[in-house]
Specification:
Layout (H helix, E strand, L loop, with lengths): L4 E7 L6 H15 L3 E7 L6 H8 L5 E5 L6 H11 L4 E4 L11 H10 L3 E5 L10 H18 L11 E4 H5 L11 H7 L4 E5 L16 H18 L3 H28 L8 H29 L4 H4 L2
Parallel strand pairs: 1-2, 1-4, 2-3, 5-7
Antiparallel strand pairs: 4-6, 5-6
The structure holds uridine-5'-diphosphate and magnesium ion.
Uridine-5'-diphosphate (UDP) binds next to strand 1 and helix 3.
Length: about 300
């Protein structure tokens, strides 16, 4: 079967990179197949990006989607992946930090039978990145590895390839693009890694600062929760509820015995703690039950579950 390829570029204020990026990508992709499309997702850019893309969209094989407002890379990718029509989807950043010449390396792996190929910037050039960014990248990768129980080397590498359905299956909002490998692994797809080069940003500035460390921590909690408990929220909330409620009941029991022995318990601080713990426990259990109701309402596609 002849392969067909969609290349997805998320872009936010990348006016200077667009043409060099396209010129570097076109010869590589057209050599692999005639059946390709290049998808630019303009994530609400404020520079000349929309103007340049408006011109480009007249070209054959080029599609442009412009988001109503700047919504973040994950959302831009989501739109690109949903709109992609070809068998294989490749994505990379639009700032020329990845090398389009390496697209065939990723495609080869998909053709070998993998559902997902993640790039690995193994030889990161130290001079390209600030010490803070390097440290946050190492911390992020290690934390993600431990918490998710997956074993990728470079979770946030922007250079990735998917079989079309795999990319369409991802939940991408906020900063969730950083956990694409975790999601893919968790969904049971076959994946591998390929070592890719990395270059310094030629034009423009990075859009992600150090604030992402804190946000990333919350995303990690979300991803862990979704992986472990999405299908059984009561197991997560119920366990916490039982712990609190059980402790509360234990205190209550102790107070009850004391009361039977004839001591007054009305003014004891422990009574307040016991009541508080019991209520917290009940709240957690009800939250879990609400979660179960929500999960129950999500329709699941049987075909999606079959290999
Ligand atoms: N990007 C985007 N929306 C945003 C921020 C970034 O689509 O709100 C794109 C950006 O144009 C680039 C990629 O996401 O193609 C990665 O951004 P950047 O290079 O600034 O991040 P870094 O490589 O520094 O982590
Ligand atoms: Mg970049």
């Amino acid at each position: 079967m002849p392969k067909s390829i969609s290349i997805v570029f998320p872009m936010y204020n990348e006016e200077e990179s667009i043409l060099p990026l396209l010129n570097a990508t076109l010869p590589v992709v057209s050599k692999i197949t005639k059946d390709y499309e290049i998808i630019f997702v303009d994530d609400g850019s404020k520079d000349k990006t929309p103007k340049i893309l408006e011109q480009l969209k007249k070209e054959k094989n080029i599609k442009v989607y412009t988001l109503k407002k700047n919504s973040g890379k994950a959302t831009a990718l989501y739109v690109g992946f949903q709109k992609a029509t070809k068998d294989i989807i490749v994505t990379m950043d639009s700032d020329l930090q990845d090398d389009p010449k390496e697209i065939p390396l990723l495609i080869e792996k998909i053709e070998e039978g993998y559902d997902f190929v993640n790039g690995w910037k193994k030889n990161k050039h130290v001079e390209h990145t600030s010490p803070i960014k390097r440290l946050s990248s190492i911390t992020f990768n290690q934390m993600t590895k431990i918490v998710s129980g997956t074993n990728f080397n470079d979770y946030n590498c922007p250079f990735k390839a998917f079989r079309n359905e795999v990319a369409k299956d991802l939940f991408l909002y906020g900063d969730m693009h950083r956990y694409i490998p975790v999601q893919v692994a968790n969904m049971g797809y076959k994946y591998t890694e390929v070592i890719v080069s990395n270059y310094p940003r030629k034009f423009g500035i990075t859009k992600y600062g150090s604030k992402r460390i804190i946000k990333g921590f919350f995303d990690l909690i979300t991803i862990k929760y979704l992986i472990t408990y999405k299908n059984s929220p009561l197991h997560a909330f119920g366990t916490i509820g039982l712990l609190f409620g059980g402790l509360g009941m234990l205190c209550n029991f102790y107070l009850y015995i004391t009361w039977l022995m004839g001591y007054g318990i009305g003014g004891r601080p422990l009574l307040f703690l016991a009541v508080l713990l019991t209520i917290i426990g009940l709240q957690f259990i009800s939250m879990g039950l609400l979660g179960e109701m929500i999960t129950n309402n999500i329709t699941r596609d049987a075909d999606n579950l079959i290999k």
